[in-house]
Amino acid sequence: MLGTFAHHTVVNEASCIKIEKDVPLDKACLLGCGVVTGWGSAVYAADVSPGDTVVVVGIGGIGANAVQGAKLAGAKRVVAIDPVEFKREKAMEFGATHTAASMAEALPLLQDITWGTMANKVIMTMGVGDGQVMGEALALAAKRGRVVVTNIHPAFETGGANISLLDLTLMEKQVVGSLFGSGNPRADIPKLLGLYREGQLDLDGLVTKTYPLEGINEGYKDMRDGKNIRGVLVYE
Ligand SMILES: NC(=O)c1ccc[n+]([C@@H]2O[C@H](COP(=O)([O-])OP(=O)(O)OC[C@H]3O[C@@H](n4cnc5c(N)ncnc54)[C@H](O)[C@@H]3O)[C@@H](O)[C@H]2O)c1
Q1: Which protein residue has the closest C-alpha to ligand 1 atom 28?
Q2: Domain 38-182's class?
Q3: Which residue intervals define the domain Alcohol dehydrogenase-like C-terminal in the entry (predicted)?
Q4: Is there an atom of ligand 1 within 6 Å of 58 CB?
Q5: Which long-range contacts does 209-214 make (Cβ < 8 Å, 24+ apart)?
């Protein structure tokens, strides 16, 4: 029930969160979805604990914040996976300790750095969810590890999820879904803006490029070409 790409919009008061005047709106806008979803996927849905090894698959607006959330929750290692080199470089700035270009590449890396125990948490934040890669995701998870499915799968995906249910049972693994980072906008948006104010959450680094309204098509093209963590429309 929101209107976007407009100077003004009418919204239900239930959809409004007060933003304090010292927070720039071109950064606060990131908390409308991506930041809370990614951060909460790590902190709430994955329930990352100090010392965990965490994998984040897909370093866009959501995944970059899952990396930040995992780091702030005390993860010992954060392995960021993305086929785009620029995204992997940005992941290291947000707190990743290792990167890989694919889950196949991450498997031997995790076996090596965890001495075979694998990741406590695997957070799926790819551009489009794909049931056929869920087996690979589960294989990255440790015994009693948890795979969080935050990325959205096509509504008419027909192949289901390609996972070993034997592995699920014998290794007591978990697969859980998460919407808006399993967070609460009224509490979490002010909380995360507070972390930004204190320098514990990087919002500035998330904005790769800003565009005027007339540049919206360029913004969409850059998004599709994988050039931005986030592109922000700034209205004069
Ligand atoms: N659950 C929720 O509440 C919620 C909320 C918002 C968005 N989403 C979903 O989260 C997902 C991510 O959104 P976003 O805005 O960060 O997208 P994005 O386009 O900014 O980033 C997606 C990233 O995934 C990478 N990627 C693509 N295929 C990959 C693969 N096979 N392995 C590893 N990385 C891969 C891309 O290179 C890109 O960097 C989308 O599916 C989106 O619909 C879910």
Answers
A1: 126
A2: alpha beta
A3: 61-195
A4: yes
A5: 210/26, 210/234, 212/236, 213/5
